[in-house]
Write a structure and sequence with these properties.
mainly beta; Cathepsin D, subunit A, domain 1; two-stranded antiparallel ribbon
């Protein structure tokens, strides 16, 4: 297996016309995407909180977290984003992939459409709910 890199546009949900293109390492094992703080600041994306992380070497760090808009091809989605600091890698995590309706094909090393499933509840005659 190899590494997969993609370029994705990142924007502020409050001003979606202005975006910055960022090259990401696709990490389907990561939950959140990591974008450099200077890009998020430039887009006017503000931190809404903080998140704690444990690094592979056991060190613990805290990073700011906000919400960003992501665009890839014809796909558009919003997801939590981590404010990357010096030496942090630009990662595209699973929440962003799902928000974009995409998944990683690890053999072809490319993004592909994620099948979208929507559940509906059917009402039986007499008012009972059937799943």
């Amino acid at each position: 297996m190899g590494l997969t890199f993609v370029e994705i546009e990142v924007g502020n949900p409050a001003n979606p016309e202005i975006t910055e293109t960022v090259e990401f390492l696709v990490d389907s094992g990561a939950i959140y995407s990591v974008v450099p703080t200077e890009i998020l600041d430039k887009l006017g994306i503000k931190p809404l909180g903080e998140e704690k992380f444990i690094l592979a070497n056991g060190d613990k760090i805290i990073r700011k977290k906000g919400i960003a808009l992501f665009k890839y091809g014809g796909n558009l989605g919003g997801a939590d984003v981590i404010f990357g600091e010096e030496r942090d890698s630009n990662l595209l995590g699973s929440l962003t992939l799902e928000a974009l309706g995409l998944s990683l094909d690890p053999l072809k090393r490319e993004l592909k459409p994620l099948p979208m499933v929507l559940a509906r509840i059917k009402n039986k005659p007499g008012g009972d709910v059937r799943l």
